[in-house]
Amino acid sequence: MATILIVDDEPDIREVIRFALEGTGFRVLEAGHADEARKLMQSEEPDLILLDWMLPGRSGLELAQQLKQNPKSRGIPIIMVSARGEEEDRIRGLETGADDYIAKPFSPREMVARVNAVLRRSKPEESSDQIEIGGLRIDNVSHRVTAEGQRIDVAPTEFRLLHFLMSHAERAFTRSQLLDQVWGEQIYVEERTVDVHVRRLRKALEETGHDNLLQTVRGVGYRFSDKP
Fold this sequence. Notes:
- The structure is a single chain.
- This protein has helices at residues 11-22, 34-40, 60-69, 87-96, 108-122, 156-167, 175-183, 192-205, and strands at 3-7, 27-31, 48-52, 78-82, 100-103, 130-133, 136-139, 144-147, 150-152, 173-174, 214-217, 221-224.
- It is of the alpha/beta class.
- It folds into two domains: 3-122, Rossmann fold; 130-224, Arc Repressor Mutant, subunit A (Orthogonal Bundle), CATH 1.10.10.10.
- The termini are far apart.
- The strands form three sheets. It has a five-stranded parallel beta sheet with strand order 2-1-3-4-5, with helices on both faces.
- Helices cover 39% and strands 21% of the residues.
């Protein structure tokens, strides 16, 4: 049974979300603001966080940034919830570290579907594969990325993206193909989301100088290669 943390300052919205989630078997925790959520997470480790953008005091965007910068919480998926439905706002939320974005008003059924989809995506498929290219190694069992023994921390979505590209090295993929293979065909995510996660993955790989392995193919998309 997965545990979901709802962070929203509106009790009525928390109640609607809690009722929908508990009705499908989830355990639910609630917090009305960012500091309450941080305090709660000192004793609880949720499997996913539903985080409202507009919170009193520290915003949901600030909290997402802090959680993704902390090694202990950066692997927890975040779905940003907001009445700000413009594309730039969605991109900003994803760049901050959110794994998905849902605009208010939303249906409880859509919320549950999004939660299930993100939880599925956050768990790597069972595999004994260890792939090493250009000094970079990815282990799909231990869920680790290393370079010459140095561990590189990557978030769940970036891990799946990297594993897929390394599993198909030298092949160029369009953004649409990557969305289907990494996010899933039934999930609506804009193609620009791929660019956001590629930037985040490259930033992580910069620590060991392996960001050049993730190459942009002009007019197509991206490929993983150790060839110039």
